[in-house]
Amino acid sequence: MSSHLVNRVVRLGTFDAESRWRPTDLAALPAIGTSASDPAVDAMDELLAGFCDPGDLLITRRPMSAAVREGLAAMGLHFDHLALGEPGPGPIERHVLADQAIMSRIRGATIAPYAVLPETWTLAEQLLPAPDVVAQVNSKTWSDELVRRLGLPGAGRVVRSTDELVDAVTSLDFKALIKDPYGVSGRALLEASSPGILKAIERVLRKQVGNGLRIELVVQEKLPKQHDFSGHFHLDQNGSWEFLGIQQMTNRGFRHFGSSPATPSLIDQGWYAETVSEVIPALTEAGYWGPVGVDSMLLDDGTVIPVLEINARQSLGLLAIRLDRQAREHGLTGHLWQLELNLAAGETIEDLTRAFAPIRYAGTAQPGVTVLNGSTLASPGGRVHVAIFCAAGEIHRWRQRLLTEVISAGLTPRGMTDAA
Questions:
Q1: The domain at 329-413 falls in which architecture?
Q2: Domain ranges for the chain
Q3: Handedness of CA 208, 209, 212, 218 (dihedral sign)
Q4: Where in this chain does the record put each ATP-grasp domain (predicted)?
Q5: How would you class 403 by CB atoms within 10 Å of its CB: exposed for 0-12, middle for 13-18, buried for 19 or more?
Q6: Do domains 223-316 and 329-413 have the same CATH topology?
Q7: Contacts (Cβ under 8 Å, ≥6 apart) of 243
Q8: How much is the pLDDT for 185?
Q9: Quick one: 213 exposed, middle or buried, by C-beta within 10 A (0-12, 13-18, 19+)?
Q10: Pick from 133, 120, 278, 147: which is nearest to 218 by CA?
Q11: Is residue 67 predicted with pLDDT exceeding 80?
């Protein structure tokens, strides 16, 4: 292989990008505090393998398990790989920039990141949207103001003081969700369902304001919903765009748990694409281009909330679309699912891949399962993502079979949930 990757694609990323976009002077909701990095999130960069084409180079923070690599190869994912080892905290891009051997190897390559941080922008030689633009358009404050400007349903209220927060929640009769502008997947999101909960939140925030921090939160009404779903686009620098599809999401509480192809009965996809495309000119005007995911919601009464928030980065929904496109080449549907496990001392990701050996997907018309990440999984456990390839309408049965294989192998799943 050539020592340089000219005209090749290098894929890498830092999956807690939202915490790095978040201004340091913002007061934090009680749920997020200042906890250490989640090891499972830290290792999610392996999921970028799902976007790889042959010849791409995937750079991950830590080595990938041979068992995971073999499973990916069996489903048809072939790529070159480079692991940094144990680089320590901070964005992976920062460690790549500091490694002259890696920099020499990737010089001239196209950088395809999970999300754009300042270090990503430097690594890509400023050929990506500016990091301050990316941070801005990923803010729930920005997307909520855009929803209001476009006259779309579902607008919330941006509050910038504790008094405004109290007024917003009480005016909704405590049917309110309080969102940090840079929260993700249910983190930094609280349901203020009683005066007691609101008082506790208010107390925490007032203390932080007293220490010089400022408040910026989005308060939205908690609406009765049938389904969560997401629409996905790719936006070019010239403002043109491609609609990639819709994924129906399964959430546990407010946290993303799985993505599957949206059923035709869920929504008129043409109407949805046209409606959500109203956000494209605003993104272009702000200076953003690249992958765009829009979280949406279908209410019990049939109302569609087309824009809850905007994810101007790669996303798990976009990965699920990629998996489904591969599956459809073989007459199957592709689904992204999350599995949480308790592990005994000595158990690793190899135990999980062995458990799935009878149902491992082989890149054909035969249904099966592929473990997509989790190389660092060890006792006491954690979460991994799997791809399920099955016939249309068979996902529920295959999730049950997945659980059966895990339990039969002596492993202990925790908190498996059914799709909505």
A1: 2-Layer Sandwich (3.30)
A2: 9-128, 155-221, 223-316, 329-413
A3: positive
A4: 144-341
A5: middle
A6: no
A7: 231, 232, 233, 273, 277
A8: 64
A9: middle
A10: 147
A11: yes
Q: Is the dihedral of CA 414, 190, 44, 246 positive or negative?
A: positive
- pLDDT at residue 1 above 50? no
Whether the model clears a pTM of 0.90, i.e. scores above it, the answer is yes
Whether CATH 3.90.1150.10 fits 223-316: no
Amino acid at 163: D
CATH classification (class only), 155-221: alpha beta
Structure tokens, 367: 């249904």
Confidence of residue 2 (pLDDT cuts 50, 70, 90): very low
Instruction: Give the pair of three-digit tokens for residue 183.
Output: 């929260």
What is the token pair recorded at 192?
């203020």
Say how far apart CA 387 and CA 371 lie, in whole Å.
6
Note the pLDDT of residue 253: 62
As beta bridge partners, residue 258 has 250, 337
Edge-to-edge order in the sheet of strand 176-179: 157-159, 217-221, 176-179, 189-192
- What per-residue confidence (pLDDT) applies to 5? 57
In this predicted model, what pLDDT tens digit does every residue of 366-393 receive, in sequence order?
A: 999 999 999 999 999 999 999 999 999 9
Least Cα distance to 16 among 36, 33, 31, 30 occurs for 36
Determine the Cα–Cα distance for residues 31 and 177; give it in Å rounded to an integer.
Answer: 13
